[in-house]
Model the fold of this input.
Amino acid sequence: MNELNMLSSIKASEESGARLDFADLLSRIEADGGKSTAPCMMQERSRAGKIIGTAAGIVAVAAISAAALAGIGGAVKMSDAECAMDAAPMAPSEPAESMDSASEFYTSDEDYSFSENGSSNSVSGVVAENTTGSDGETVSDSDVSDSDVSDGDVQEVD
Amino acid sequence: MIDNKAADKLICDIAGGDMSALETLYRGLAPGVFAFARSIVRDDALAQDIMQDTFVRVYNSAGSFRPRGLGKAWVMQIARNLALDALTRRTASEPEEVIGERPAGDSTEDSAEARVMIGHALSVLTDAEREVIVLHAVSGLKLEEIARITGEPLGTVKWRRSRAMKKIRTAMAGGEEAAE
Done:
């Protein structure tokens, strides 16, 4: 007997003892009487999420468009630029959902090198490597030599 | 057989008060729920009770269900919780029915003979192995879903299934040889 037949036999054998009684089930439900009233929370949330996502998308597009218009050239009047600047701060206040989706663009490697370098100015490790802050460049044993900080200096300060 | 996607839809329909959806889900999944519960409690009557109570829970909890393509696994998880609760409650003095032994006369002689052989094969498995085999073979769950339900790593579930199949093959080969 091959594996598939074996599994089929097990299925047939194990299910055979079940006595389906839907009327009994209904009477148990009636006796229990504690039905949850919120239908399919996830589906509702999903719809709500789509609406929020769409709204966030529209706001983001509007902000980007406004920013682009503001940056087209020096011909833009000051008042127009102010309008564009007013729209720009909308972007950081987007819902958390769209921020989460944006973070998916960063790979785990980038995240790792980011935290390793400890830079707060860059997002990816590539940029972080070019900034000051690595151990070798700024604080080395040779930089802090005995001649720079001698016991005598310390005593003088004291 | 009802797949996960269909189960998701039916559970959502049940949440909306559709009793025909409950009946469809019940008729599609109840035999598997029974077999799974029976594999845990090893008692036909208790497994029957758990099967019914599982669908009462399904009906009552359908509103909090999140459809993520795991509807069948969700139902089996409810059945597992109820079966484990029943197992805990059952007093030690109650006799434990050996799996595979069923009242005579509830089926034909041929299938009864096959069931005895299957019952013998399943009896050589540990509880954890039997759980994996029944969920996989009877309830039709994927190994990933079984890992989720049992809370075990996928590798452990795969290993248990493999070892269980080896044991069943050996036991059934022995049974066939004995019959000849």
Chain B touches chain A through 56 residues (CB under 8 Å). Residues 98-108 of chain B have pLDDT under 50 and may be disordered. DSSP finds eight helices and no strands in chain B.
